[in-house]
Amino acid sequence: MPTPSLLIVTRRDATEVDGVIDAVGEMGVRVVRWNLCQFPEMESASSYTMAPFPKLSILGDLTPQAGWIQSLGVFSVSSSLDGLPREVALSECQAFIYGVCATLSCTWLNDVEAIARASNKLIQLRLAGALGVPMPPTIVTSDWQDVVRFRQIHGACVVKAISQSYWGYGLRELKTYTVALDRFEKLLPDALKYGPAIVQKEVNKKTELRVTVVGGRCFTVAFARSRCPEQAIDVRQIDYQRYSYLFTATKEWPAVEEASFRLVRELRLGYAALDWVVDEMGHPWFLECNPLGSFKWYELCGANGITEAIAEALLGLTRHES
Questions:
Q1: Where does 180-305 have alpha helices with state H?
Q2: Is residue 182 within 8 Å of 160, Cβ to Cβ?
Q3: Measured distance CA(168)–CA(19) in Å, rounded
Q4: Residue 2 gets which letter from DSSP?
Q5: Residue 42 and residue 59: Cα distance in Å, rounded?
Q6: Which of 133, 131, 248, 150 is CA-nearest to residue 196?
Q7: N or C: which end of the chain has fewer CB within 10 A?
Q8: 195 falls in which pLDDT band (50, 70, 90)?
């Protein structure tokens, strides 16, 4: 029987991948790591479409049975080009990576098409509604008057980006966070003319939950929001190290975990990280799902076993294909 093999699509600074590589290596799996941050300038690649099945040059003679797209991160040309040449190069790089990942014969923990679909927040919200998963009242709009009417009905609201929350342009970086509508009110009417946004009823948070789903396993970490003196609406703005004592692994939310399983399954994912909040009355509300969510911090907070669960899921895919 040939040695099982695995392709991991990631970037150099994704250190949590190292643990997975070590774990699958101990299981006898050969790994090829493709750091997209080095592509295409520092590490080239070719796709041979005329072969009996699609082949990727960086794999050599290896035909991986399984693959894990840990990141579809920034390509090297992001910082070395500018203006229109940069946008064209990025578009071509992205088309190449998506095409390669969609046509390789391996089985993915999350395939690229499922990632693209699951990353769309409108699809997430529609699916959550269809499944009866509780979520705050939400509108996605480019019409300021609809925002005004929505706020009149629901009271205090927050504003979110629809797509990603991080953009890079050369050496410039832009991070967007969830903000209170009241603080953004003067800018939003004009901003909506250039693109829609998510407006959501604000939840008075007592607890925030990060649920990591890997195959049939679930890992939940609770953040005691009400005990944190920092009042930022978006948890990503919290100093994690300073308030690490407020993050704890928990098994006290089985209904949240069951709903998370259903969402991940319907989104055709094998791995995902889901954000939930719990209001002052103890009611949980789903916010969003990230099929490329990181997990190492949550392991450090006590959600032990995520690395091993990913490794076991990948090993299962190699066995399934062999």
A1: 181-184, 188-191, 254-266, 296-300
A2: no
A3: 27
A4: P
A5: 16
A6: 150
A7: N
A8: very high
